[in-house]
Structure formats: structure tokens, C-alpha cells
């Protein structure tokens, strides 16, 4: 009976150690996976849809077919974001042909959304021998295009907000690498399609000038408006806390330098030479006796 109690006691005492071992193992496995570094490009792929029905198209393996976002005039490449970089991004689709015009009708009516995806991690550069490469993981990013349809044309709100959430890795520099967690994109001012500055009247053959306001959240949580503000961006900003710490550091440096000067440097100088003309009558005390000052603030040393 005592041995059974001892075993139970030993098992209970080992539970915290086993839990820490499991956490460390999962952290090690997570650290071995690739992650985005600050500024890394993130390509955008969208679901390929039929222009007749708006249904998604499948490949030979009966899987959904994904194609790159249309090419932007500004870069000559499909749309892509960069990890952690908040910016105003322009992407002008050169010409709206008849098939794409019909797809835009599906997108605006929400019969078939502009469903896209982003890779949650970059492609691995190193493969383990004897292990099959892991399948890439993606997060959905649905572009909620807003507008109205007419008989001969359409109006589209061409400015979109893009909100991206990441999960940073826990190390010394928490903002320099991480993985994507989630995202959303939506048109702004959809009701001002007739007079808004970010709306466009489109017919077949026109270019489609899209603009994106990209913002990043370093965690899956939203910033709070009451209580503690959790969101401080992904870097590249100056906040009140930054100014406060800089001011405190400056004052501390001035106080430390002043204390060192008046506590160490100045007493050594006073012990090493006479005060000379610094005294009211021009008489100073040097290191070895009484010296007569010359009225200019110093006196000759008597050796």
C-alpha cells in the first residue's frame, strides 16, 4: 500500500514536467516550420470561376482550381502583399474583357464572391530526408466588392480596406517574423457610387483601378477602444510611448552625466589647481598652499 501511494505521488509530481515537455516539443516543432520575415511578399490566388454560372472550376483531381490575381499595371505582376507593411497599394487591371466583366457582375451581386487565399507560411527552403514535404496551408481572403449594375454598365467602389492578422513568433524581436492567421477585404463607401471619389463607372474595355489600404494586426484579436489598447501595429510608427521613453532616457542621461561631473570631475579639478580669480579678492587656494590670483580666474602653481 505505501508503494502504491508513493507511485501515485510520483505520478502527480511528474504531471507539470510532462506538460512542460509537451509544450516545449510543440514549440520546437513550430519553430522548425518556415515563417514570413518583415517585408516578405505574399502572393494572392483567387478561385477560378465559370463565366456562365459563376461556379468554381475543378481540376483533374476534382480539387478547386486557383489562379493568380489579375496582373497590375503598376508592377506588371499579380497582386501581392508584404508581411507587416502597412501601405496604400494601387493595382490597375489593364482592360476589362467580356468574360471578366461577367465575373464582376457575379462578384457585385454576391452570387459568387471574389474568393481568394493567401499562403499562411512561405514555402520551405529545406526538406527533411525521408519525409514527404508538408502541404502548404492557406487562409481565406474574400474581397467584398460593392457596387451597382445597370443595363449597359456598372458602378464599382474601387477602394478596399484590407485587414490582415498575423501570429508573431515569440523571440527578441516579436515583429520581424510570423505567420498569417486571418484576413478580410471590403469596399468602402458603397452607397456613394454615383458621386464618390473612389467609385468607377465601368463598361467592357475600360481599365479597373483598384486601390487597397492595407493594415496589419500583430495578433488575431482586434484593438480595444476601451481599457487597454492591445494593437500597436507592426512597426514603422512613432507612438506616445516611444516619445515618453526617449524623453525619460534623455533626462536620465543628463542627470547621470551631471552627477558624475559634479561628484567626480569637479572635485578633482578643484583639488588639482587654485581657484585664483574665482575668489572675490583674487586670492585662491592651490593644492600646496596659498596662491595669489591674477584676476583672470587662475593662479600659478607653487611647486
Account of the 3D structure:
The protein is α+β, with helices and mostly antiparallel strands and 303 residues long. 25% of the residues lie in helices and 27% in strands. It is elongated, with a radius of gyration of 34 Å. Strand 15 (283-285) and strand 16 (290-292) form a beta hairpin. The longest helix has 33 residues, at 240-272. The chain starts with a helix and ends in an 11-residue tail after the last strand. The model is unreliable at 12-19, 21-31 and 277-298 (pLDDT under 50). It contains three helices and 16 strands.
Average the pLDDT over all residues and give the rounded result.
Answer: 76
Q: Which percent bin holds the helix content?
A: 25-40%
Report on the biggest sheet: 9 strands, mixed
Q: Structural class, from helix and strand content?
A: alpha+beta
Q: End-to-end distance, in Å?
A: 93 Å
The SSE string, one letter per element, is: HEEEEEEHEEEEEEEEHEE
Percent in strands: 25-35%
Shape field: elongated
Give structural attributes.
single chain; 303 residues; alpha+beta; 9-stranded mixed beta sheet; 3-stranded antiparallel beta sheet; 16 strands; 27% strand; elongated
Summarize, please:
Helices cover 25% and strands 27% of the residues.
Which SSEs are present, and which pair or pack?
Elements: H1 2-32, E1 36-37, E2 41-43, E3 45-47, E4 66-68, E5 80-82, E6 87-93, H2 98-109, E7 114-119, E8 138-144, E9 147-149, E10 154-157, E11 159-168, E12 177-187, E13 199-202, E14 208-217, H3 240-272, E15 283-285, E16 290-292
Parallel strand pairs: 8-12, 11-14
Antiparallel strand pairs: 1-12, 2-5, 3-4, 3-7, 6-14, 7-8, 9-10, 10-13, 11-12, 15-16
Amino acid at each position: 500500500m505505501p508503494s502504491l501511494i508513493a507511485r501515485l505521488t510520483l505520478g502527480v509530481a511528474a504531471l507539470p514536467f510532462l506538460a512542460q515537455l509537451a509544450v516545449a516539443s510543440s514549440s520546437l516543432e513550430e519553430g522548425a516550420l518556415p515563417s514570413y520575415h518583415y517585408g516578405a511578399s505574399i502572393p494572392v490566388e483567387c478561385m477560378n470561376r465559370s463565366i456562365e454560372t459563376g461556379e468554381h472550376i475543378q481540376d483533374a483531381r476534382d480539387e478547386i482550381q486557383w489562379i493568380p490575381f489579375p496582373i497590375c499595371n503598376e508592377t506588371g505582376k499579380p497582386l501581392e502583399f508584404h508581411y507587416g507593411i502597412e501601405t496604400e497599394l494601387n493595382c490597375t487591371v489593364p482592360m476589362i474583357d467580356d468574360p471578366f466583366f461577367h465575373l464582376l457582375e457575379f462578384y457585385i451581386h454576391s452570387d459568387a464572391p471574389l474568393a481568394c487565399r493567401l499562403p499562411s507560411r512561405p514555402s520551405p527552403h529545406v526538406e527533411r530526408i525521408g519525409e514527404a514535404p508538408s502541404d502548404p496551408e492557406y487562409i481565406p481572403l474574400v474581397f467584398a466588392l460593392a457596387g451597382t449594375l445597370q443595363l449597359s454598365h456598372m458602378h464599382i467602389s474601387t477602394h478596399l480596406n484590407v485587414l490582415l492578422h498575423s501570429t508573431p513568433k515569440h523571440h527578441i524581436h516579436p515583429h520581424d517574423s510570423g505567420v498569417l492567421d486571418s484576413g478580410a477585404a471590403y469596399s468602402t463607401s458603397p452607397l456613394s457610387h454615383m458621386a464618390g471619389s473612389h467609385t468607377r463607372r465601368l463598361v467592357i474595355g475600360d481599365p479597373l483601378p483598384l486601390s487597397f489600404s492595407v493594415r496589419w494586426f500583430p495578433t488575431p484579436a482586434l484593438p480595444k477602444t476601451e481599457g487597454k489598447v492591445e494593437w500597436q501595429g507592426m512597426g514603422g510608427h512613432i507612438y506616445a510611448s516611444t516619445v515618453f521613453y526617449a524623453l525619460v532616457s534623455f533626462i536620465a542621461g543628463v542627470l547621470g552625466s551631471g552627477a558624475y561631473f559634479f561628484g567626480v570631475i569637479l572635485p578633482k579639478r578643484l583639488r588639482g589647481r587654485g581657484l585664483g580669480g574665482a575668489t572675490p579678492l583674487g586670492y585662491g587656494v592651490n593644492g600646496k598652499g596659498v596662491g595669489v590670483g591674477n584676476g583672470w580666474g587662475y593662479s600659478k602653481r607653487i611647486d
